[in-house]
Amino acid sequence: MTWSILYRGSLSSCNYACGYCPFAKRANTRAELARDFEELERFVDWVSGCPRELRLLLTPWGEALIHRAYRRSLVRLSLLPRVRRVAIQTNLSAPLQDLAGAGPSLALWASFHPSQVTVERFLSRCRKLDELGLRYSVGVVGLREHFQAIEELRARLPRAVYLWVNAFKRSPDSYRPEEVERLVGVDPYFRFNLPRYRSLDRACRTGQTSFTVDGKGDVRRCHFVGQVLGNVYEPGFEDCLRERLCPAERCGCHIGYVHRPELRLEEVFGEDGLLERIPLGWPEVDSRAGGLPESPAGVAGQAEPHSAQTPPPSGVWQEV
Predict the structure, then answer these.
(1) pTM (two decimals)
(2) Is residue 317 part of a domain?
(3) To 5 degrees, how large is the angle CA 259–CA 260–CA 262?
(4) Which residues does 121 contact at the CB level (< 8 Å), separation at least 6?
């Protein structure tokens, strides 16, 4: 059985200043960074000795790839034979040449932030990834004021690169119908991300074949549920992994709802593409794009207001 693990250490800093992010232009102290790097090294050592086949996604609070420790760790992880995929979300501002020795399992979530970087500058970083032969997708938060930049980026990116749009869901009327269609023109799968799915007491693979690990090694079923199930550094921790129904009322973030069996999103992304967010067979778009099942609303119901103005509790992901 392959495990999908989302790792997040204690890093909580970023070199960008996006208005919707609580970690914008926040800096860790040297002592805090040293602790985070120690946590990361311990986790990588654990992965090296884990007998399971793994898929890994690093989901730091802020930007991690600007730190050499993360670039080195990604290369090391990508070369391990039992790691099927290792991915990280990054704004691409780091020295990318350090990833030149990575294995084929490495993939990047390249996040475009129109308020922080020009389209031309971001495209130049993508071209660097192409030169290095690295697999990547590009993502952006679908803010109304950024629609034009998002469309320009889609027009200028190679068609083989998938550009996904995260719906901005802090109000029930974030998008007018014509705006949804406009964003679907950029990302054919945008409608999957638009709802906040009803999830309470519904089947979910998190806590069974997918789970999160924090800097201390504590295991949670996902970033949205704070309950600690076990610790990867303790013998027999895998006994805590079992089938569970979801305890959360709603789930609106890709890294959570992709594990809902009823949504069948593995048919869109494939088993390996679920974490790295690259659709199976992209750039060929299947006729069901934007509608698996027949309509996301069939399992989601209506989107509801969501506010995320303050950081969530430790171990819980903040949805955007």
Answers:
(1) 0.88
(2) no
(3) 140
(4) none
